[in-house]
Amino acid sequence: MGRLSAPLVVCVLVLGVASGAPADVDWPASLAGWIPVTINGGQPYVEPDDKTPDNIDLRGDATYNTGYWFFDGKDLMFRLRLDDTPTGSTQQVWQVLIDTDGDDYVEWALEYDAKNDDQIELNIALVGGPTWDDVSLNETHIWADSTPSQYGRFIDPTGDGSTFDGDSDGFVDIAIPWAAMKLYTGVTLSTPLRVAFSTSDNHNNINKDTPDVWGDPFYVPEPGTITLVALGLLGVGARLRRRKQDD
User: 0.85 exceeded by the pTM?
Assistant: First the structure.
């Protein structure tokens, strides 16, 4: 979706500025519960050392993935790895860019906005591409939960050994209720989602750490299959650990 028509934007805004009372988010208990976002058909989501300051620099390599997702039947969650401790005083916006129709354009952005509104918010893209620099997000959010919010948090340190540039790294976790995601974006459990991670100094565009590529498509699982998915991921993790030991 390259550009939204004005009537559609107005319609979505009328539907969505209000949000209900926040509920506790059941974040995964450990990193093993998160699902890595991959790129290029299953490769790790890699982010180079390319931005300053470090607390807005997304990082990742073949060992420490840049981003993750998780769904528990109630909330859709994302985790971003940063090259330093994230704090709410950095005056930055951490972004999960979302492509819902596979056209390489940004349709939505789920943001931890520590710059303007200090809240977790879902913004619609007025212009979604074709380049990251062309992305323009609507000034008024579609859904938001004000800080202190259950839908965003900082993790310091990562706890998995990630020490890019020789110091401990951190995570930014961002979530949205699945009911809100469905209502405002129109996605369903059969919609293939693609995400990319970025940072900005405002919630209207991307002007700091821009993605290199989109992540591989993934489907949010039916609630009844979540346990099976988790068990499968544990098996994958065990195989990867054995492979690393063999190497």
Answer: no
